[in-house]
Amino acid sequence: MIEMKEVYKTYPNGVTAANGINVFIDQGEFVYVVGPSGAGKSTFIKMMYREEKPTKGTITVNNINLSKLKNSKVPLLRRNIGMVFQDFKLLETLTVYENVAFAMEVVEEQPNVIKKRVMETLELVGLKHKARMLPTELSGGEQQRVAIARSIVNSPKVVIADEPTGNLDPETSWGIMKIFEEINLRGTTVVMATHNKDIVNNLTHRVIAIESGKIVRDEQKGGYGYES
Amino acid sequence: MKARTFRRHLRESFKSLGRNGWMTLASISSVTVTLLLVGVFFVIMMNLNSVATSIEEDVEIRVHIDPAANEKDKQTLEQQIAGIAEVKSIDYSPKEEELSSLIASFGEEGEALKLVEQENPLNDVFVLKTKNPTDTIRVAKQIEDFNFVFSVKYGQGTVESLFNFINVSRNVGLVLIIGLLFTAMFLISNTIKITIMARRKEIEIMRLVGATNSFIRWPFFLEGLWLGVFGAIVPISILATAYYYLFDFLQGKLAANHFIKLIEFNPFVYQLSAILLLMGAAIGIWGSLMSVRKFLKV
């Protein structure tokens, strides 16, 4: 479902963030991406939703060849990828409901479908009762759950998460991980960059370790493998 | 685009005007101030121009015919004058008519002139107008060389400096209006740019969830339109009201001075309003689309 072949990425300032990456992630997999800061995890992830273009090599996501994808078609790719970030990226002026519904309005879905689907998704993340609140009135963990609801409301095939628990305490992080597990069990591919050793070691899945822009380790049921 | 989506954009554009209250106010005020300046200037310029035009139209060439000319000579002369391409109209005014209008212009004191009616010393005159008032001088020079022309009068000296003055003031006014317009565009688009800068996160998120560029642009396009239109309302009402009273007031004062006359309220003020409204809308839309463009590069 996600495939990279001989992918290189050098930024204009000379930093090489991907140095010959080959990887294949199948539909329905749950993959952790680990590695020290500055190793190229973010670039690896950003290239999947075409926020960054590789300098060389081919990337295929959901059978779309990203190197041949026109700029104007990028939105269509993004609609099949759910995105979750460390800083949630919610619109503070919109309510919880509106934040989630936003992703469906963008794809011009029917209003009654939007209503039904948003409420279902909020129920899945356990925030149905807070639909009318503003993000600023919620805790960090709750805000992240809104962001997750937004990422899956359009039923994407892939959910990509960049340090989703980076701003959260351990207990809240486990709550968030439970939701990702649930999403994965429904057949959605989950790719998650993380620094959370505890989670990687206890909730075991495939682990891809990146260092200096290269995959140095790729094992099923792997551990975090770094100190702290 | 679906009608539903358009309604959504419409709704969103109004909502976000409210959400960004202070920024909205700042943008509208900057539109208001600049359009007011442009509007005032425009009113002054158009009126000056209209006065200038009416003065120009009063300029005529008077060809005094040599008393020695007989009827045939006069006809030849008239044909020669009519042959000049720039001439619009020729009127013949016999010396009797010239004298009676001279007497009339002196009022009561003119009675004395009636004594010379038997031996009228004046000339028969061709009064002519040129198609373009600025051709006056050239045409006059040309006629001077014709046969049986006693003299040619067109307000020598005065006309030259009048035309010069009118030309200079027209050009200065045009330059000022264009300068003001550029300032307005710069000022307004900058204010709108700041407004949108504050909302880059919103645009970033829209892009992440897969909104197409046109979907993102639409609400901003409409917002720019509203900013421009709302910003134009105040200057339009101020100018319309002010002009209404000014016209009334000056009409009394300047009535005696028949050639200085303000342009009629209707349709001038309606045209002015339409121009300001269009200008506001165009600048608002332009400013907002230019600012969004920056964030839409994929």
From TrEMBL, chain A:
The keyword Nucleotide-binding applies. One of its GO terms (biological process) is cell division. Its main location: membrane. GO terms for cellular component: plasma membrane. Keywords: ATP-binding, Cell cycle, Cell division, Cell membrane, Membrane, Nucleotide-binding, Transport. It comes from the Bacteria. It is found in: Cell membrane. It is a peripheral membrane protein. One of its GO terms (molecular function) is transmembrane transporter activity. Residues 2-228 form the ABC transporter domain. Part of the ABC transporter FtsEX involved in cellular division. Belongs to the ABC transporter superfamily. Homodimer. Forms a membrane-associated complex with FtsX. This is Cell division ATP-binding protein FtsE. It comes from Mesobacillus campisalis.
TrEMBL record, chain B:
It holds the Pfam family FtsX_ECD. Residues 59-152 form the FtsX extracellular domain. It is a multi-pass membrane protein. GO terms for cellular component: plasma membrane. InterPro entries: ABC3_permease_C (IPR003838), FtsX (IPR004513), FtsX_ECD (IPR040690), FtsX_firmicutes-type (IPR058204). It is found in: Cell membrane. The chain crosses the membrane at residues 21-44, 172-192, 225-247, 267-289. GO terms for biological process: cell division. Keywords: Cell cycle, Cell division, Cell membrane, Membrane, Transmembrane, Transmembrane helix. Residues 175-287 form the ABC3 transporter permease C-terminal domain. The keyword Chloroplast does not apply. PANTHER family: CELL DIVISION PROTEIN FTSX. NCBIfam families: FtsX_Gpos (NF038347). Belongs to the ABC-4 integral membrane protein family. FtsX subfamily. This is Cell division protein FtsX. It comes from Mesobacillus campisalis.
